Amino acid sequence: MTNPAPIAVVGLGYVGLPLSLQFARSGVRVLGLDIDPAKVADLNAGCSYISHIPAAEIQAQRAAEQFEASTDFSRVRETQAVLICVPTPLTKKREPDLSHVLNTARAIAPHLRRDKSEIGNRKSEIPLVVLESTTYPGTTEGELRRELETGSGLVAGKDFHLAYSPEREDPGQPEHRLADIPKIVGGLTPACRERAIALYQQAIRTLVPVSSCRAAEATKLLENVFRSVNIALVNELKSVYGAMDIDIWEVIAAAKTKPFGFMPFYPGPGLGGHCLPIDPFYLAWKAREFGQPTRFIELAGEINTAMPQQVVGVAVAALAAQKKSVSGARVLILGLAYKADLDDDRESPAYRLLDLLSERGATVAYHDPYVSVIRATREHPHRAGQESVAWTRENISSFDAVVVVTAHQAVNYQELADWCPCIVDTRNVMAKVHTQPGQVWKA
Q1: Which fold has domain 311-442?
Q2: CATH number, domain 7-213
Q3: How confident is the model at residue 124 (pLDDT cuts 50, 70, 90)?
Q4: Among residues 85, 192, 213, 275, which one is catalytic?
Q5: Is 275 a catalytic residue?
């Protein structure tokens, strides 16, 4: 870049990279920071590692000198604002893991201190730090603030601005453009909030100010807990109506014709992605600090977490109907990504299904047109390097059962029906396909 970038975005994954490109398209120069040298090299070469982000978009912003990636966190000194977009996973005990956020704070804090020659004398150029990662209320003004102040020797709200603005990404849905999704903004002080609004309004059409960072953090959790609870409801009704020989998919389709008072949610094999399987636990954990029970939220989590077990139960019954045992059976998982038409496999229930079926003695494989090989992950290291089975009649017909986990449009479901004698359908994709009686089992 010929000139320093006004903003830095830390974490160039499914949240940080789209945000970086949106600011760059809007005329704001962006320095993308990440600890992964491979990602940085790919981006600077104009390559994309996320399926729904075309390489051409990256190349355009590189050519315009609007975007640059780096692993050098000392370059935060060049910027006026730092947006933190790093993961907030759970520990093995299903407790919040803020290590990525706090490590980022430690990395950038020493570089927030500026002398007047670096930032000028205007108060508006006091550095701004914004957290976008989903977390429990109090994180920004608590843990994050302490790390930034300790590492910099500065005071939040006085020497640097601090704010929280949760990401609202809907990957793979072009009708939900980042620029058009209203953005929540809360600040440590009113001045912090106004500084954050001034930044985001350069790239986002609608800003929604709230009274505090805690209110903004709570808003993000409400959005995801709302979805989690409603998905748990239809997952439970799937079992209830199934016992009554009623198709939950037919019921939902009929109910959503009501023009008021109803919003359709759909059952599935379990929750996936970086939000729904995780965020409710962040709120439940924090609520215990205040002595507040979250029975409703925790029950929804239990129901959704149990879905893979229920799917396996249906698969066992489907195989038994063919006089086959799950032990020794060949089972194909169709779809590894957690969401249709994407390559994002974070927290995908497909992994749990692979493990559960393997534990019962089945030989398992997967096919996904977007995930050709399983990458090394902390959660599923034993699956690293496993490759997607090629979509051919010979391959697919060799399996005793296929479990549909992800409703990818790129899959030819009529071919699946023609090639496989036993299909366990968790997404209702076979409803409009010609099948044989007893061939499809809904789960």
Answers
A1: Rossmann fold (3.40.50)
A2: 3.40.50.720
A3: very low
A4: 275
A5: yes
